[in-house]
Amino acid sequence: IQLTQSPTSVSASVGDRVSITCRASPGMGSGLAWYQQKPGKPPKLLIYDASTLESGVPSRFSGSGSGTEFTLTISSLQPGDFATYHCQQFDSYPFTFGPGTKVDIK
Amino acid sequence: QLQLQESGPGLLKPSETLSLTCTVSDDSISSTSYFWGWIRQPPGKGLEWIGNIYHSGKTYINPSLKSRVTMSVDTSKTQFSLKMSSVTAADTAVYFCARQGDFWSGDHITRFFDYWSQGTLVTVSS
After folding, report:
1. R_g (Cα) of chain A, nearest Å
2. pLDDT at residue B106 above 90?
3. Which chain B residue has its CA at the smallest distance from A45's CA?
4. Residues in A touching B116 (Cβ below 8 Å)
């Protein structure tokens, strides 16, 4: 399953609502996860099963979608949210990642 | 708090074999609820799943790397290992090990990487 992400990068301000799309080809089930990665750090799990929030992750993060299109939404961007976001599918082997979306400060 | 720590050489020459070991801080490596994975990230690029291993030794390996990759697990030492033969400059990357949750959720299997190592940079250069 090939994953693409859009946009490749987005410039936003604190308080903005940001949405990132992950498209799967071919379509898949709900086995999609979202991670946040900051420079020099490992990815951090945010969302799994497309929409389940990982324990301890702020509720401003949410995930949705099915089939071929999935979305990660940050409802109100906070200073610590500037990072790169990756989607990953666990629906079928080989597991694959999207290319990443960088969220930076406008 | 679970911790994973890789160990292994950071500099290799082309054609050598990459060997990394990931030490898990508790005995969850023997749990039926987890696989243990390897993921890499070339500098400035995206993440690539290399493969994973179960406590029984069952492995799933990315077909793009399968001819060069072997994985093993030693539950008595709470370690799992990656070997990649015939490395080239294209294998230069930060290598992560991670715990993969793997749970039956009624009508599907829930999977995710919830704990990651800090990552180790492996450079292949002559």
Report:
1. 13
2. no
3. B114
4. 42-44
CA distance A22 to A1: 12
**What size, in residues, is chain B?**
126
Q: Phi-psi region for residue B11, left (φ > 0), alpha (ψ -120 to 50) or beta?
A: beta
Would you say A69 and A98 are in contact if contact means Cβ atoms under 8 Å apart? no
Task: Specify whether the backbone of B106 is left (phi greater than 0), alpha (psi in -120 to 50) or beta.
Answer: left
Alpha carbons B58 and B61: distance in angstroms, whole number: 10
Q: Do B62 and A41 touch (CB under 8 A)?
A: no
For B3-48, write each residue's pLDDT tens digit: 999 999 999 999 999 999 999 999 899 999 999 999 999 999 999 9
Residues of chain A found within 8 Å of residue B63, distances taken between Cβ atoms: 94
- pLDDT per residue over A35-89, tens digit each? 999 999 999 999 999 999 999 999 999 999 999 999 999 999 999 999 999 999 9
